[in-house]
Every structure is written in C-alpha cells, then in structure tokens.
Amino acid sequence: MQSDGVSAIIASGAKELGLALDASQVDKLCRYVASLYKWNQVYNLTSVRRPDQIAVRHILDSLAVWQQVRGQRVLDVGSGAGLPGIPLAILMAGKQFVLIDSVAKKTRFMLQAALELGLQNVEVVQHRVEDYRTARPFDTVVSRAFSSIREMLQLTQEVLAPGGVYLALKGAYPEHELAELPAGFGVTKLVPLKVPGLDAERHVVCIERA
C-alpha cells in the first residue's frame, strides 16, 4: 500500500478518535509504519504484515488510549516494536516516554525508529521489567501485550508514582484477569475503545492503588 493510503487511514482514524494531528505528526506516524514494515520482513517484530493493517491494528489501536494517559512520565512495559509508546510519544511531545523490553532485536528497532523520527521524548531500555528501577517514578504505566494484569501490577509497582495509573490495553472484557487483581489495587475505570477500521473488541483497564 502506498504511503498516501496509510496517511489517509491514520489522519481519518485519528479524527474519529477525537485527535487533530498536524502534518508533521501524520508524517512521523507514516514513517514509523514504513520502518516497522521494513524491519518486520527480517526481524519478525509483529504478525501484522500489511502497512494498512499496521496503521489500523497498531497505530490507531495505540492512539485510542490517549485520553487515559496521565502526568508527564509514561512507562511502556513490554513495548515490543514500540507500541503503544512511540505513537503516543509522537502525539504527546510534551511527555517523557520510557519504552522497556528485554528482547534485543526489539530494542534495536525502537532505538532506530526514535532516532529516525527525532523523538527527543523517548528513552529505550533493554531490561527485564522485574529488575528495572528508577529514581523518577512514572505517572502512567501502560501495557499493550505484556502478560496478565496481575503480573503487570506485581512487576511494576515499585516504579509507579503516588497517584499514578496503570493502563492495561485488552481485547474482550478481561473478566478472569480482573477477578485476580492483587491486594492493594482497584479498577477505577474500564473503558470500551472503538478503534477505527478494527472490527474487534478493545478495552483499556485503568487501575490505581486502592
């Protein structure tokens, strides 16, 4: 698919999500799609192969959570190819994003993408999340494809700032996972997401310390 087709998908989809992207943001998102498509042919970063589907299932799906992001520092746990961290960092240039993954090929891609796109607000960390510590805790900890909600909370509770929020991006309503929340945490919101062009259930679970 040509870049103008991907651009149209992203621009129109973002508008449906209530976002007014400028030309520079659309351009960076399109370049990110192109880079992910190129690297994916060698490094198998995602099972989504077509650029138009990457635009819907990765870019718009990541941007759909924008209203729930809180504060200035955001940690993307198990970021993989930089999702949702890189699309959100392009959208929210005033916030600082740390993207963490333990797999070298994934962090290499994220570093290259951040460099090519000039994302000064992105830091990429190759680390096991359970061993990661920081002197500056995070206002938002987001996860799109990292294990269960329970494990996410247990492994990252040391890096969440007071008053911070967890955002767990899920498909269907995660009834079983919510029944297994560890003590000391509570769901504050469960928001159904409508991702333009995606015929599938999506939810974001907002969790805070009780």
Short description:
It contains seven helices and seven strands, in the order αααβαβαββαβαββ. With 210 residues, the protein is an alpha/beta fold. The protein has a seven-stranded mixed beta sheet with strand order 3-2-1-4-5-7-6, with helices on both faces.
SSE string: HHHEHEHEEHEHEE
Helix content: 25-40%
Number of strands: 7
Which shape, going by the Cα principal axes?
A: globular
Q: Work out the radius of gyration.
A: 16 Å
Strand content: 15-25%
* Euclidean distance between termini CA atoms: 47 Å
Structural class: alpha/beta
Widest sheet, order of strands: 3-2-1-4-5-7-6
Topology, element by element:
Elements: H1 3-16, H2 23-43, H3 51-63, E1 73-77, H4 85-91, E2 96-101, H5 104-117, E3 122-126, E4 138-143, H6 149-156, E5 160-170, H7 175-178, E6 185-193, E7 202-209
Overall description:
With 210 residues, the protein is α/β, with parallel strands linked by helices. 39% of the residues lie in helices and 24% in strands. It has helices at 3-16, 23-43, 51-63, 85-91, 104-117, 149-156, 175-178; strands spanning 73-77, 96-101, 122-126, 138-143, 160-170, 185-193, 202-209. Strands 3-2-1-4-5-7-6 form a seven-stranded mixed β-sheet, sandwiched between helices. Strand 6 (185-193) and strand 7 (202-209) form a beta hairpin. The longest helix has 21 residues, at 23-43. The radius of gyration is 16 Å and the shape is globular. The model has no long low-confidence stretch (mean pLDDT 95).
